[in-house]
Design goal:
By secondary structure, the chain is α+β, with helices and mostly antiparallel strands. Helices cover about 25% and strands about 25% of the residues.
Length: about 625
């Protein structure tokens, strides 16, 4: 069987082109830097680059992205990439590159004080990710390399989007009297501190914990620090510690704790090292932490094993704290629904926490993915502006969960256990919340874009509000084994996935054919929301999965909607229809699809499940999407 994690690409739709098919045809003025843009992004961290990469997919959206630093990140701070982030990278087309370079976390070991009273000993060894949690692994790779891959996606887009470095934001103002209501003033640090004014329809501050955008909106981060000092360092170690190439949580009896994260390349490791608590009013910078001090502390914690740094690639010291902003946009709750948001914040600009849970970069990127498709849909006239109110609503709730989780994780890891039972608490907490740390437990509450789970029993494995959990299928037209979700790229489209009931082969009069007929009727959902000059699947992409073996299906008997003619040349799209694998990995069994009734699963552009509907409940589906999407 072929690798099911391969990149899924379609090209040549509008004619044959030589060269790299991942490079989009550029639009006129692609390299211009207009003074009025659709979106201005401030900050080139993971949130900003995810947002920019998403928006770079659309030729009809103008974007500028400004960064105060003089160039791209070279030495990364974050390094843990959750399974859910890898799924997102697949949608952007670079998951394979990350897997090729990164360290794959397979097992985790826990070390605690030895019962003999001499140093530490291994207490347990477990799998890092449970079976069928995701088709993607947990990866360790420098944040700088993740940035590189996003920058490549941006450059290959139709507008060749590249960051503008040495640009410091001075001020942000909003005036609703124009089409470009946000006015940003920037200082050009590489041009004698000249100033530039950029007007934008929307501005997003991805400018970190000291966010200027957040300050200009009048928001503040609220929370507290734990006065616990930690050091972090990337080293090339010389050691006799047996688990140096495994993720390890080490808790000594008196000397403190260490988290070991093996890095990419086979030699380097990252150490998170617990230091002494800070006094009242003391800051991390007051301690005079050095690499030598950190290694000395690591040696104390890891006794009786030895460790030394043959070379230190990077190090820092930080104070644990959890802080959260009250809102992620510029609209107060009293104004919500009366005026729409125009200024947003994402990533560390609205939530900060300790790095040991491995969630910072991952949650920041999820912020950018959540906001990106929403901005694109409104700017392109596909969705009502009320869609943008859901960003702060959804992501603040997610950040609150992260803050609570991080506080418990940090407290348990730094605890000084009195006995074996207390010592095991951290491990139990780690195992209990494995799905959360993998990033797959995020569940958006019912809202404008997430339906109530009235029909969840039709597809129990596709929980409404959670991400669409991929599973193996076989593509009908070419018998290709693949992961279903890998057909969903980061292109801003909604997906309707039809799971056919037993006995339905897609021919006329059957449930799937009936649904397709209603959806594509001249008065149907698709025609109502798709511009006449665009392909039928350009706003809502309809696909189908059948329980039969692929050799028992006939492609030419399927509804026209599942084999549409597209593009300038009116070519048939052969990649809309899939069958269950029948090799012990039947998607109907894996995801709890009702075989007798089938199911319709509606998937948002960020690949979260928006709703599960009966195949004969198209009126409910149309009512749900009708509140959000704009008619042509």
């Amino acid at each position: 069987m072929t690798d099911q994690r391969g990149v899924i690409m379609q090209f040549h739709l509008n004619g044959f082109r030589t060269g790299d098919p991942s490079i989009a045809e550029n639009v006129p003025g692609a390299d211009d830097r207009p003074s009025a843009v659709d979106v201005l992004i401030v900050g080139c961290g993971p949130a900003g680059l995810t947002l920019a990469a998403q928006l770079s997919m659309f030729a009809d959206i103008t974007v500028r992205i400004a960064e105060r630093k003089p160039g791209p990140l070279e030495v990364g701070q974050a390094d843990g990439i959750a399974c859910r982030s890898m799924e997102m990278f697949q949608a952007f087309g670079f998951a394979e590159k990350v897997m090729k370079e990164g360290y794959s976390v397979n097992e985790v070991t826990f070390w605690r004080p030895s019962r003999s009273g001499h140093g530490i000993s291994r207490a347990d060894r477990i799998r890092d990710v449970e079976d069928d949690l995701s088709e993607m692994p947990h990866i360790i790779l420098s944040q700088a390399r993740v940035h590189d891959f996003y920058l490549e996606v941006m450059r290959k887009g139709p507008r060749h989007l590249v960051p503008e470095y040495n640009r410091e934001l001075i001020s942000v103002a909003r005036s609703d009297e124009t089409d470009y209501p946000v006015i940003a003033k920037l200082r050009c640090l590489d041009q004698g501190d000249e100033e530039e004014v950029i007007r934008a329809r929307y501005l997003v501050g991805c400018d970190g914990a000291r966010s200027r955008v957040r300050a200009e909106m009048g928001h503040v981060l609220k929370g507290q620090t734990a006065r616990q000092l930690w050091g972090v360092m990337d080293i090339l170690p010389r050691t006799d510690f047996p688990d140096i190439r495994l993720k390890c949580a080490i808790q000594s009896e008196e000397a403190g704790s260490i988290l070991i994260i093996p890095r990419e390349g086979g030699y380097m490791v990252r150490l998170y090292i617990e230091l002494d608590a800070l006094a009242e009013g003391e800051r991390a910078a007051d301690r005079g932490v050095t690499p030598e001090l950190l290694i000395s502390k690591a040696q104390q914690i890891m006794q009786p094993f030895r460790i030394e740094a043959a070379e230190t690639a990077w190090w820092s010291a930080y104070e644990i704290g959890q802080r959260l902003c009250d809102a992620f946009d510029d609209v107060s709750e009293s104004e919500r629904g009366k005026r729409g948001p125009r200024i947003f914040i994402a990533g560390d600009a609205c939530h900060t926490h300790s790095p040991k849970a491995g969630q910072g970069m991952n949650v920041s990127m999820a912020d950018g993915f959540n906001l990106g498709w929403k901005l694109a849909a409104v700017l392109r006239g596909q969705a009502r502006p009320a869609l943008l109110d859901t960003y702060s609503q959804e992501r603040r709730a997610t950040a609150r969960e992260l803050i609570d989780f991080d506080r418990d994780m940090a407290r348990l890891f730094s605890a000084k256990p009195k006995d074996t039972a207390e010592a095991e608490m951290f491990q139990k907490y780690f195992q209990k919340h494995g799905r959360y740390t993998a990033g797959v437990e995020t569940c958006y509450a019912p809202s404008l874009i997430t339906a109530a789970p009235h029909h969840q029993d039709l597809a129990r494995g596709y929980a409404v509000g959670q991400r669409f959990h991929s599973a193996p299928v076989v593509r009908l037209a070419d018998a290709k084994p693949m992961q279903l979700a890998h057909a969903f790229t980061a292109d801003g489209r909604w997906r309707i996935v039809l799971f056919a009931p037993e006995g339905d082969d897609g021919t006329g009069g059957g449930p799937v054919a009936t649904v397709c007929s209603v959806l594509s009727d001249p008065d149907g959902l698709l025609i109502r929301h798709t511009p006449p000059e665009r392909d039928i699947d350009s706003v809502i992409d309809v696909r189908a999965v059948f329980p039969q073996h692929h050799r028992d299906m006939k492609f030419t008997s399927l509804p026209a909607l599942l084999r549409p003619e597209k593009g300038r040349l009116r070519l048939t799209d052969y990649e809309k229809v899939y069958c269950a694998q029948h090799r012990g990995q039947d998607i109907f069994d894996l995801r709890g699809i009702d075989r007798n009734r089938g199911a319709l699963v509606l998937v948002r552009p960020d690949h979260h499940v928006a709703g599960v509907f009966p195949l004969n409940a198209l009126a409910d589906l149309e009512a749900f999407l009708g509140r959000l999407l704009t008619p042509v």
